[in-house]
Amino acid sequence: MLRMDSRATRPDDTQPKLRVAVETLERAQSLLQEIAASLPEEAGEDGEVSHRAVIECVLVDRLEPAVQDLRTVLEW
User: Fold this and answer.
1) What tens digit of pLDDT does each residue of 39-75 get?
2) Under 8 Å between Cβ of 30 and 36
3) Model pLDDT for residues 13-42, shown as the tens digit of each residue
4) How big is the CA angle at 44 (ends 40 and 46), to the nearest 5 degrees?
5) Could you please report the per-residue DSSP string of 16-45?
6) Residues with Cβ < 8 Å from 1, sequence gap 6 or more?
7) Backbone φ, ψ for residue 3 (5° rounding)
8) In the chain, what percentage of residues exceed pLDDT 70?
9) In the chain, what are the domain boundaries?
């Protein structure tokens, strides 16, 4: 049988902290976008992946989906 812990945090109690976390991630996104925009697009001479490409992948594959998912939770 599942027992509720009376000390457990309710979702409503976490909303302000979650909002701060989302805002922090959004600021990180903006900073990374600025950094990527300042870097050249081409790969290095030895064919290595450029810093810009790595940052853009992190933004698209990880940060943007995370921020979207967390915004959805805030709307519940």
Assistant:
1) 888 776 766 678 999 999 999 999 999 999 999 999 8
2) no
3) 889 999 999 999 999 999 999 999 998 887
4) 170
5) HHHHHHHHHHHHHHHHHHHHHHTS-SSPPT
6) none
7) -110, 135
8) 80
9) 14-38+49-75
What is the reported pLDDT for 10?
A: 73
Residue 3 per-residue DSSP state: -
Report the half-sphere exposure of 12 (CA within 13 A, side-chain side). Answer: 0
For residue 48, give the DSSP letter.
P
CA angle 21, 25, 31 (to 5 degrees): 145
Per-residue model confidence (pLDDT) at position 75: 87
Chain position carrying tokens 């992190």: 58
Q: How far apart are the first and last CA of the chain?
A: 27
Instruction: Flag whether pLDDT at 1 surpasses 60.
Output: no
The Cα–Cα gap between 37 and 34 comes to 5
DSSP state of 6: T
